[in-house]
Amino acid sequence: MNFWHSLDVPDQYGRRVIITGANTGLGYQIARVLAGAGAEVVMAVRDLDRGQAAAQRIRDQVNDAKLRIIHLDLADLASVHDFAATEAAAGPIDLLINNAGLMLVPSRVVTRDGFESHMGVNHLGHFALTAGLLPALLQAEAGRVVSVTSIAARRARGLDHGLGLTGTYTPMGAYSQSKLAVALFAGELDRRLRATSASVTSVLAHPGWSATGVPGRPDDRPGPTVRFSRHVTAILGTSPRSGARSEVYAATAPEVDGGSLIGPRLLVRGRPRAVSLPRAAADPDAARWLWSESVRLTGAEPRPV
User: Fold this and answer.
1) What values do phi and psi take at 291, rounded to 5?
2) Does residue 15 surpass a pLDDT of 70?
3) Rounded distance, CA 44 to CA 114, Å?
4) Are strands 40-45 and 144-148 parallel, antiparallel or unpaired?
5) What is the spatial distance between Cα 257 and Cα 276, in angstroms, rounded to a whole number?
6) Staple partner for 51: which of 22, 45, 135, 187, CB 3.0–4.6 Å?
7) How far is CA 109 from the centre of its chain?
8) Taking the chain, what is the end-to-end CA distance rounded to the nearest angstrom?
């Protein structure tokens, strides 16, 4: 745990934490650290076998780790609603980390509900999940939602109102749009929470250029551009252990303000701190439109009261 001492991770005993995509990459590292700090960690995973294996690795490192492994498929709204209903009924939730995601799926694919896959998993699935869990977050003394964006969001000049289903498809374009949507949602959620003086805060984080282990599809047959991008990232990106520092800081540091974006000091590497939002992510009109459209598409709405 020496690597994390510089972040001064506060004691997490008595706190219930939900982390999506907790079986690999950033999510696994976050689960390991928060379990080591005493939290009860709900590892929300699509593959239960991989989730159980990841939990065992954490138990091998952390004595008395309090872990639960629960199935969640963010590409299926029925799965999201079932998970949220069960976990919200289990009592207060102190921390929700919307970490799971898809990256650079080579061709346009739709989810079970007909959403472009990046947008469906990275944004819309987490939007519905947050809506279902917000009542339990409001029961906590100081709940927090951490949403994970990417430096790729800076590539997007504005939000695509087709949400990836129309026009020319490129893997990086679709990924960038989904991460812009995550940032717009987190900002709008924070504004709505503040307007009601809610006890919950909404925070953004990005890991910098990190080899996060974010998957495409197992059989996605990537083209040369995607293969090259994945290869370069694997070589030059920071490790998931390093990239996870931003999310851990955003999740646990008491000085982090709602609406903040936490990332490495130089956008790529370094100690996490508050950094500037991408210009397109600071557009309140786009955020309000996206909120309304997300409610229409998912049938769910995060309600601060």
Assistant:
1) -60, -50
2) yes
3) 22
4) unpaired
5) 13
6) 45
7) 20
8) 38
List the catalytic residue out of 13, 169, 175, 249: 175
Question: How far is residue 130's CA from residue 98's CA, in Å, rounded to a whole number?
Answer: 8
**pTM score, two decimals?**
0.89
Q: pLDDT value at position 208?
A: 67
CA–CA separation, 211 and 232 (whole Å):
9
Burial of 239 (0-12, 13-18, 19+ CB in 10 A): middle
Do the beta carbons of residue 141 and residue 266 sit within 8 Å? no
Task: Give the separation between CA 214 and CA 31, rounded to whole angstroms.
Answer: 16
Buried b (16+ CB within 10 A) or exposed e, 121-147: bbbbbbbbbbbbbbbbbbebeebbbbb
pLDDT at 95 over 50: yes
Tell me: pLDDT of 59 over 80.
Answer: yes
Residue 146, strand partner residues: 97, 203
Residue type at 18? I
**Residue 305 pLDDT grade (very low, low, confident, very high; cuts 50, 70, 90):** confident
Would you say 70 and 88 are in contact if contact means Cβ atoms under 8 Å apart? no
- In sequence order, the 6+-apart residues with CB closer than 8 A to the CB of 137 are 92, 93, 94, 96, 143, 144, 145, 200
- Which residues are CB-contacts of 64 (< 8 A; sequence separation ≥ 6)? none
Superfamily of domain 7-295: NAD(P)-binding Rossmann-like Domain (3.40.50.720)
- Write the pLDDT tens digit of every residue in 169-204: 999 999 999 999 999 999 999 999 999 999 999 999
Map out the domains of the chain as residue ranges: 7-295
What stretches of the chain show up as alpha helix (H) in DSSP? 25-36, 48-61, 77-88, 117-118, 126-139, 171-195, 224-236, 240-252, 284-298
